[in-house]
Amino acid sequence: MTAVIPFAPGGGTDRSVRLVTPTWGRLLGASEDFLLDHKPGAGSLIAQNLMANAPHDAHTVVFTPAPHTAWLAELEQASFSVDQVAWVGSYFVDPNVLLVPKDSPYDTIEQFLDAAASSDRPFTASVSSPLSAAHAATVALRERAGVPLEVVPFDGGGPARNAVAGGHVDCCMAPYWSATNVLELTKALAIFWPEDPTQGLWDAPPANEVLPFDMPYLSEPYCAQISAQSAADHPDRHARLVETLEATLSDPEFLAGADAQNLTPFVQFMDPGECNQFITEYLALLAEFRASMERDLENM
């Protein structure tokens, strides 16, 4: 089995894949561990092309946050369609939080937005890359709040989060668990989810409980997928992958590793139908905010 990762080693996707694949491989009865193949670049198109050109035997699995698949379908319509993939399922869901530097004068999202609205300069917000899930989440907050936020793109989520930790930008919209490496250097003003799934980490208040306007729930389900051709040619293998991925998430071996990295509160299985539903809803979110995101590109 080959695990294709569309990002460089060391990020949230890489860390999570290293947690889930040993147990998943064992439950599949694989004689060897998953081979990890990092194929960063082109908004995950390189990784998707690798899977599309691999043998369609259900032995090549792409691990990716679901929003990246939606974005790729939007931006690379000539090269990629969501119909090319068959979802196996999610293994954890990472809600977005709004981070500010630890020494920021703002302790609540209301204070932050009030200051941004009255500032003589636009507040800056780091994102992992232009036209990314983080960019979409940042623009959703900017447009709903009606405050100026200047989007500053970086080469990956790690550098974007390091920028807010170092005080180089005013804020960063980040996936919660993936950003825990800067926990001690930042504070979270809000989580864009019904509740904070953890206790004793950021303890962020839900945005819709403290803001005078509604925000969409913003999260990144981290998912496994195979080629649609593999699923069509080998429906039994696809079903076995779905079954064993779900079982992995309750296996003591996996949970011990997840506990050690504070991942357990985020572990969640979304079946293939739920993954498809997420993509449908996320594409609607992109339709609402894409024009504003594209205007950002002119200033980058």
TrEMBL record:
Leader peptide range in chain numbering: none
Pfam families: TctC
Highest taxon, organism lineage: Bacteria
Family to which the UniProt record says this protein belongs: Belongs to the UPF0065 (bug) family.
Protein name, entry field: Tripartite-type tricarboxylate transporter receptor subunit TctC
